[in-house]
Structure formats: structure tokens, C-alpha cells
UniProtKB/TrEMBL annotation, chain A:
A Pfam family of this chain: SBP_bac_8
Entry-linked Gene3D superfamilies: Periplasmic binding protein-like II
Signal peptide extent: 1-23
Domain of life: Bacteria
Family annotation (InterPro entries): Bact_solute-bd_prot1 (IPR050490), SBP (IPR006059)
Protein name (database record): Cellobiose transport system substrate-binding protein
From TrEMBL, chain B:
Database matches in InterPro entries: ABC_transporter_permease, MetI-like, MetI-like_sf
One BP term from GO: transmembrane transport
Organism name: Thermocatellispora tengchongensis
Protein name: Cellobiose transport system permease protein
A GO term from the CC aspect: plasma membrane
Keywords: Cell membrane, Membrane, Transmembrane, Transmembrane helix, Transport
Principal subcellular localisation of the protein: membrane
Residues passing through the membrane, by range: 40-63, 101-122, 134-155, 161-187, 240-257, 303-322
One Pfam family recorded for the sequence: BPD_transp_1
Length: 432, 331
């Protein structure tokens, strides 16, 4: 039964990663240290490293029409793998794509190493500053603010998606304004959940799991897991503890479907209608549509309890390993342009980080039949306008995982919230 | 006939015979060197590769483990045995050790017993023998990723086949991945699925070398099939059993892929390297992976690897002594 025999773990692990990240394509980008630009007319292949679907594929086709010498390949891996691999590839100076997407939970990790990325200002992209939400722009800057390392794609203004049919079955109102009126606060959201549970709708719980709800609540607070000096303040920030307590109330009242976010059973849960509500940053709308293909018209979107917040959103960065930084920078500029952000939103649901679009009539009036013609353009514009930025620290994702595991232990009934919290604090203390 | 040096060519006429005495010595010496050195040259590739990919990393890991060494920082500070001290006081490490032993026992013991039984069944005149033997090996050639993904679905809480079957008998839905014992059983089943047939084939090969007369004599004496298995087969193939036990132990101590992928398919990416939110099925290899390749703390991960290496040696040694004794008693 020799599972993995080699004396050293690294090759086995590398093989395993290659196997588990089946979607990871060839390493055509990177490797060399030369940064010379290509001769005109020479065929250039640019790789774009993403996690999940960014809805860029139609854009590549169009870009190739105006840039016949550019070939674009996309390599997509799973969220955590993508970012961990990027860290490894930067550290070992080999294997990054020409353009790498970085989610906001990791952005501070990468802006802390400005020597590994090109300064986009060198390619004239600081001209884009006036386009962007100021905080989104700031997130892409190096720590001292001198270099522009990432250009924003989307922001994840919050809303709450819910299943109309399940709400009706539970005897709750199903119109989106009436639903929004049910839960101005998270406490009221939990009360609604108890009513839903009391109606005993077969096969459905009120919410998928406490993890993403916790993340949303923390993101609504003015200060989250880190203070402005990059100290982890999980133990001392009362907002974090409050979010923890509320999230655990969901578990303890049996309102959660115990489906961990982004796991295959969670995906199945969308298709089977295993939960009635889910926290819904703009990008989640695309995900729901993808997973619950047969549920068109059953989902709708209401306001999020507790006020505006941001969850997710990404930047595109330009690692120094790439051989064609000039062309890649041009592509970044194009992919994040005002027109294309609007287009990706309409196709994929990821919401633009360019405020000029928020009052654009084509966005304001945009609805989606899948969500019962909900005015998602207006909903997410309002959410994005109300956003207050929050400082994110370098190990944001690791801290969140430690807390998420704590929430999972309570949800699975293995620990009381107090025991789990004590363990979370110990785990977080170890994060350096 | 013993090898001997080729006859030296006769000296051509007219050539001075002054150098004559030296030539046979030179040729013979060359031959002697050839005989002495060539075998080493033939096996050298293995040892060169082993040194490069086995021995060097082993020693280098020991060196790294004495440092504060992370992927993200260019400076490495020597801290002596501090990593080891932290490691041995980390409850998560001991939790991983427990899980490794637990999964190892739950998977290995039934697997080897089952393998002996399967081999025993196949070690008799059967039609389509080759077909059965190849079938045994099939699970072993399937990719571990495929096996874990499929079994994770079978062990699914809401829509899994196993819970559905149990439900027919009135059992409630089991959240296999959530519980410590249930997750260990689920992972052990995946391991058994892949490796039982492999071990059965090894046993079968050994059983075919057992003289037929022993069985014939036993049959005449009225011994049942089970008695023959216990009294003849097992003692006769003892060296093979010792071999499989040791190899299985080493494999069981290094289980990584099954729990990693099982966590990924049940707990999402968050709980992936921790083996579930409560670390209920985080094995030692996964613990090393967590610290080395998600926290990038190479020094600490190296220390954990070395302790794991020591554990593997100990476990293999204990099992070696145990299986030798077991065989002795049966005799």
C-alpha cells in the first residue's frame, strides 16, 4: 500500500498538485529573466492565470481581432491553489503567467513584494486612476504607495440572494422589497431563519453555511481582521466577536445546511435547492447561475442585512517573470477598461470597480431573467456606492481559514462556541 | 571454465622484445579493473539518482529543519532544535500522529487479511485465471484523484450512495467527513480499494511456490480449507507477509493524497490542508504539507518531516518484529 514512497515530499506534492489542478495548463509564461519586447509582427503568446471564470473568454477573441500577433491562453485553477502557487512561483522565480489575477483577500500579500512585479505606472497605466473607486485603486498600490502593482477588475458589493419558491413554501413573503424589509439587521435575519426552520420545508435549510455570512459581517465593519498597521486584531476587535457570535447562532439554531463554500456538495446544493438564502456579492450571481442551471426564475435578490460591505473582487498583476510586459500591460488595460467591465458584468455578474458606470443607464436598467428580472444593475450600483473601504492585511486568507474552521467545528457540533473561539485565538496567534 | 585474459598476440618478428614483459601485465590489469569496477558502474546510475533525489534532500532537510526558514524571506536564521521543541509540544502534531496511526491500522489490517483470503481463493484451479488476476490489479492503476473523488461522492452526506443504502435499513444520514471515526473509515476504504488487489497478487505469487504435496497430505488428513490456510499457507509465505506488512506500514505512515482530496471535496478549500475543520483526519504528511506549502514555513515542515521519518522507521521495525513472532507461533 505504498501511497507515496519518495524520500522527499516535494516531488510527490508537485505531482499531486499537477493532478488535482487538472485545469492548470502549460507553463508557457515566465521562466526567462529577459524583459525585452517583441519585434512587430512576431507571434506572442500571453498567459492569464485566473481562479474560477472571470468571463474574459469573449474578450480575448475580440482582442485578437485588433491584435493579430497576440495569442492568449487562460489557465484556471482553484482559488487557494491559485494564490499559493503564485507565491511559490514568485519565490522560485519561475512559472508565473504573464498576467496573474489576485483576489482582494491576498492582495496585501503580493503588494508587499513590489520587486516581484512590474510597476504599471511604467506602462502609463496611472492614467487610469480617475476611472477607479479610490479604495480599489489604493489596494493595488505598493505599501509605500509609490508603485502601481495591480489594476482592479471587480468589486463584490453585498446583497442577499434567496429562493422565492422556498420562501413561499415556508409562508414567508417572497417579493424582494418585502424580503428586504424582513431583515434590516442580522438579528432579524436570524429571526427570519427561525421562522423558516419552523415551517419545516423538506430538504432545505435557511442558509448554506456560516462561513460566508461571517465574512460579510466582518466586511461591513469599519475595521476588520487587521488594523491599519497590519496587526491582527481578531482577539480585540468587538466587531469580529459579534460576527462570530451571530454566525454561530445560525449553526446552533440548526439553520445551516452544513455545506462548506466552494466544495462539490455545496455546488450540488445549488442545483438541489438545499438552502434558501446565500450571501451574494455581485460575482456570486454568476456562480449561482452556473450551478443552478435548472432553477431559472426561482432565485431573487434582496438587500443584505447590516448595511453595505464588500466581499471579494480582484486585481490583475504583472509579474516580472513574463517575457512580454509591454503587451501584457496593454492587455490588462484593455481587460479592465470601462466598456469591458460593463460587458463582463452583464455576462458574468462580476461588478465593475469604475464608478462612472454606476449611473450609466445601461447598467442602472440592467435586469436578469434568471433572478426573476431583479434589477441587479441598480442593486449592486447602490451597494457599491455605499461601500466603505476596509483595510486588509497580508495574511487575511489564513486568518479567515482559521476562523472558518472554528465556525465549522461549531456547525458540526464538535465544540461549543466558546471552546471553538479559544482555539481560533490560539491558531490566529501562530500566524506570523 | 574460469575466465581468463585473452592470449596476448605473439610478438611480430623484428620487433624488439625489450617491452615484451610489460604487455601481458597491462592487459591483465585492465581486465582485472574491468571485472572489479564494471559492476559498480552498472549500478552507479541508481546510486547517483538516489544521492541526488534521496540522500541529498534527506540531509538537506535536516539542515533546513535547524533554521527559521520560510519561502518568502531571504534570510535564514539558525535556531538549533527550536523547531523540534515547538513541534513536539504542538497538540495538532500529536493529533496528526494519532490520525495517521488510526487510519493506518484501520486500512492495513483488514486489507492484508482480505488480500490473503483473496489470494487463497485464486490459488486453486479456476477458469479465466488471468481475468481475475488482472481485475484484482485494476483498482491499483486508477488515479488516486479519481478514486477519492468517486468515493467522496459515495460517502456524501446528503446524496451519497452509502447513506442511501444505510437509509434502507433505517439508519440516519451519516456525515462521514465530519466525525473522527467515520472519516477514518471512509479514507481507509479508499486505501483498501486501491491496494488490496496489489497485495493479493503478491501473496498469490508466493502461494504458488508452496509445494502441492503439503496440501494433498493435509487433505488426506482431513484438514479443512481454513485450517490449510492457517497451518500451511500462512507459515510458508511468511517472508512475503513480512515484506507486505513493512511496505504497507511505510505507505500508511505517508498517506497524503486521500485525506487532502477528501477534505477538498467535502470541506472546500478552507479546510483542505487541515483535514476538516477539526483536523479530524489530518495525517502527518498533510500536517507537513500544511506547514510547508500553505504557510511556507520550510524549517518547521522539515522538522516535522524528520520526526515523521523516525516514526516510519519505528513503526516498520515494530511491525517487522511482530510479524516474525506471529509466524513463529503458528509454526
Amino acid at each position: 500500500m505504498g501511497i507515496l514512497r519518495p524520500r522527499l515530499l516535494a516531488p510527490a506534492v508537485a505531482a499531486l498538485l499537477a493532478a488535482s489542478v487538472a485545469a492548470c495548463g502549460g507553463d508557457s509564461g515566465g521562466g526567462g529573466g529577459t524583459t525585452g519586447s517583441a519585434e512587430p509582427g512576431e507571434k506572442i503568446t500571453l498567459t492569464v492565470g485566473l481562479f474560477g471564470d472571470f468571463g474574459f473568454k469573449p474578450l480575448y477573441e475580440e482582442y485578437k481581432k485588433t491584435h493579430p500577433n497576440i495569442e492568449i491562453t487562460e489557465r484556471v485553477s482553484e482559488f487557494a491553489d491559485h494564490h499559493n502557487n503564485l507565491i511559490k512561483r514568485l519565490a522560485t522565480n519561475a512559472g508565473t503567467a504573464d498576467i496573474e489575477a489576485v483576489e482582494v483577500g491576498y492582495i496585501s500579500t503580493f503588494t508587499a513584494t513590489p520587486d516581484k512585479f512590474h510597476n504599471l505606472k511604467d506602462y502609463g497605466l496611472d492614467a487610469r486612476q480617475s476611472d477607479y473607486l479610490d479604495w480599489k485603486w489604493q489596494q493595488g498600490l505598493s505599501k509605500d504607495g509609490s508603485a502601481l502593482l495591480g489594476l482592479g477588475t471587480d468589486v463584490g458589493g453585498l446583497a442577499m440572494c434567496y429562493r422565492k419558491d422556498l420562501f413561499e413554501k415556508a409562508g414567508l413573503p417572497s417579493d424582494r422589497d418585502e424580503v428586504s424589509a424582513l431583515w434590516p439587521t442580522w438579528e432579524q435575519y436570524i429571526e427570519t431563519g427561525k421562522k423558516f426552520a419552523a415551517a419545516n420545508v423538506a430538504g432545505a435549510k435557511f442558509v448554506d453555511s456560516p462561513g460566508e455570512i461571517f465574512r460579510a459581517m466582518v466586511n461591513q465593519a469599519p475595521v476588520g481582521l487587521y488594523d491599519a498597521q497590519d496587526n491582527i486584531i481578531v482577539a480585540s476587535n468587538p466587531e469580529v466577536k459579534k460576527a462570530w457570535d451571530l454566525s454561530n447562532q445560525l449553526s446552533q439554531n440548526g439553520l445551516t445546511a452544513k455545506l462548506a463554500a466552494f466544495s462539490p456538495p455545496w455546488n450540488t446544493g445549488f442545483a438541489k435547492g438545499s438552502f434558501a438564502t446565500i450571501i451574494c456579492p455581485a460575482w456570486m450571481t454568476g456562480y449561482i447561475q452556473e450551478q443552478a442551471k435548472d432553477a431559472s426564475g426561482k432565485w431573487d435578490i434582496a438587500a443584505v442585512p447590516g448595511g453595505a460591505g464588500n466581499s471579494g473582487g480582484s486585481h490583475l498583476m504583472l509579474p516580472k517573470q513574463g517575457k512580454h510586459p509591454k503587451e501584457a500591460a496593454e492587455l490588462i488595460n484593455w481587460l479592465t477598461s470601462k466598456e469591458n467591465q460593463a460587458r463582463v458584468f452583464k455576462e458574468e455578474g462580476t461588478f465593475p470597480s469604475i464608478p462612472a458606470l454606476y449611473d450609466d443607464p445601461s447598467i442602472q436598467s440592467f435586469t436578469k431573467p434568471f433572478f426573476g428580472d431583479a434589477p441587479i444593475g441598480k442593486i449592486y450600483s447602490d451597494a457599491a456606492k455605499a461601500l466603505k473601504p476596509q483595510h486588509l492585511g497580508p495574511k487575511e486568507a489564513e486568518v479567515r481559514t482559521a476562523i472558518g474552521n472554528g465556525l465549522g467545528r461549531v456547525e458540526q457540533g464538535k465544540q461549543t462556541p466558546d471552546e471553538a473561539w479559544a482555539q481560533v485565538l490560539k491558531d490566529v496567534e501562530k500566524i506570523k | 571454465m574460469a575466465t581468463r585474459a585473452p592470449d596476448r598476440p605473439a610478438a611480430p618478428a623484428g620487433v624488439p622484445t625489450r617491452r615484451h614483459p610489460r604487455r601481458p601485465g597491462w592487459s591483465a590489469r585492465l581486465h582485472r579493473i574491468d571485472v572489479a569496477v564494471s559492476p559498480y558502474a552498472y549500478i552507479a546510475p541508481f546510486f547517483l539518482l538516489f544521492s541526488a533525489f534521496g540522500l541529498f534532500p534527506l540531509l538537506y532537510t535536516a539542515w533546513v529543519s535547524l533554521h527559521e526558514w520560510t519561502l518568502l524571506s531571504d534570510t535564514q536564521t539558525f535556531i538549533g532544535a527550536e523547531n523540534y521543541a515547538t513541534l513536539l509540544t504542538d497538540p495538532y502534531f500529536w493529533n496528526a500522529t494519532f490520525n495517521t496511526l488510526s487510519i493506518g491500522i484501520i486500512s492495513t489490517v483488514p486489507q492484508l487479511v482480505l488480500a490473503i483470503w483473496l489470494a487463497h481463493l485464486l490459488n486453486r484451479p479456476l477458469r479465466a485465471q488471468t481475468f481475475f488476476r488482472i481485475t484484482l490489479l485494476l483498482p491499483n492503476v486508477t488515479s488516486v484523484v479519481a478514486v477519492v473523488v468517486i468515493f467522496s461522492q459515495l460517502f456524501g452526506r446528503d446524496f451519497g450512495l452509502i447513506n442511501w443504502v444505510l437509509g434502507l435499513f433505517g439508519a440516519g444520514a451519516i456525515d462521514w467527513a465530519a466525525g473522527t471515526a467515520t472519516s477514518h473509515v471512509a479514507i481507509s476504504v479508499m486505501i483498501m480499494w486501491r491496494w488490496t488487489g496489489y497485495n493479493a497478487l503478491i501473496y498469490l505469487a508466493a502461494m504458488q511456490a508452496v509445494p502441492r504435496e503439503l496440501y494433498e497430505a493435509a487433505t488426506i488428513d482431513g484438514a479443512s480449507g481454513l485450517t490449510q490456510l492457517r497451518r500451511i499457507t500462512v507459515p510458508m509465505i511468511r517472508p512475503t507477509i513480512v515484506f507486505t506488512v513493512i511496505v504497507s506500514t511505510i505507505g500508511a505512515m505517508q498517506i497524503l493524497a486521500e485525506p487532502l482530496l477528501f477534505a477538498a471535496t467535502t470541506s472546500g478549500s478552507g479546510g483542505m490542508v487541515t483535514g476538516g475543520p477539526d483536523r479530524q483526519f489530518q495525517t502527518l504528511a498533510l500536517y507537513v504539507y500544511e506547514h510547508g506549502f500553505t504557510n511556507f514555513d520550510f524549517g518547521y515542515a522539515s522538522a516535522a518531516s524528520w520526526v515523521m521519518f523516525v516514526f516510519v522507521v519505528i513503526a516498520a521495525g515494530v511491525n517487522y518484529l511482530f510479524t516474525r513472532r506471529m509466524g513463529g507461533e503458528i509454526r
